[in-house]
Write a structure and sequence with these properties.
The chain is of the alpha+beta class. The protein contains 9 helices and 20 strands. The chain has 2 domains: 170 residues, 3-Layer(bba) Sandwich (FAD/NAD(P)-binding domain); 170 residues, D-Amino Acid Oxidase, subunit A, domain 2 (D-Amino Acid Oxidase, Chain A, domain 2), CATH 3.30.9. The strands form 4 sheets. Strands 1, 2, 8, 9, 10, 11, 19 and 20 form an 8-stranded mixed β-sheet that branches. The chain is globular and about 65 Å long.
Length: 416
Amino acid sequence: MTSSTRVPSGCDVAIVGAGVVGLAAAWRLAEAGVRVCVLDAVGVGGSASSRNAGLIDAPGWGSRPDLDTLLKMGSLALYERLTEDGFDLEFERGGRLCVALDESEVDPARELADRTPDAVLLDGDEARRVEPALGPAVRVAVWTPGSAHADPVAACAALAATAHHAGATIIAPARVVGLDGRAEGGARLTLADGSGLDAEAVLVTAGAWTASVIDSLDPGLDVPVTGVVGQMWATAPCPAGTVRTTITAMESTIAWSDGGPALTHDTGGVRRTRHLYGRQRRNGEIVFGGDRVPIGRHAVGGRAPDDDPAVDDAGITVNHAHAASVLPVLAGLPPVRTWSGIMPFTPDGVPVIGAVGGVPGLFVAGGLASSGFNRGPMTGWLVADLMLGRAVPPEVARARPDRFAGNRGPARDGDV
């Protein structure tokens, strides 16, 4: 990972946020000869991009991929490219099982398998042959054999190194405290140390901080990204193969399809839904997460969310019990470390990718909810292509930021 502490006098594109989206966009832009400067308040991959389980879903392209498939399969290809370029991401295609524990989840699981090109529905015994650690409570599972996983920290470092090699300047930590737009386009970015940077265009890839960054440029703009704390935990190292596949739960999938984005699984103060996702790392740790604590668009006093939110131990305890109901071996493997990160959700659960209406030269990419690592690299490439004036698949129009009422740009069919 290569970063700089020297702020250049100016650049073509300033990217605010050095997570997987911003770094991938910097890579794509720099390869096209654009002078790119990436700034991040915490550090390369210092927020949600490095604080996740590293799951990479691979539903398969199918005959007519939707936006979600485009982002997932495109990101998978980019992680594979980084691996082929010699980076050790701990990348492995171990497959994924999305498990159903209740009879009411069986039909939704069958429907999920039917609409997922590369998925197969397994009964409980078949699923346990794929993943012997599964318990008897698992009734059926949706098996996606091409799904993968990687180490998030290593992946962020590889993206940063690739972007730097292509010519991008990465400055971290560097907190942007002000943006002054220009009528003709571009902006003057002011950093916390008093230095400034002039850019012809600005791309905001700040995750849960997206709304506050854009508000600082123009309070009249509305790109409603809500921060939600996602909590993770890990066991002590276990023998290799204790858990062979990545694991998710149908209960979370159903919550999304029934009521839009599942921001939290607190219902009347009780954590109910198994928002589970996890796997075993190369070092032997079994890592799981899914507990969610809503914090709203801004913290108290109008500040952006805290960089490092405190862990809610009660949520970890319930999440661990939910995971143990799927993988009984976890009942005897308590969490030995816990951490959290802030995930960026939009009201409709669809990402934001494209130009922000009303401010020339302002673009945004993000709102990837709980699958930013899974979908982020391709999101970065697509927004870079839009900035370069290149054609993108028509499905990307679904993510245009001007679909929100407070965004003053006109919405026209086919525009992003």
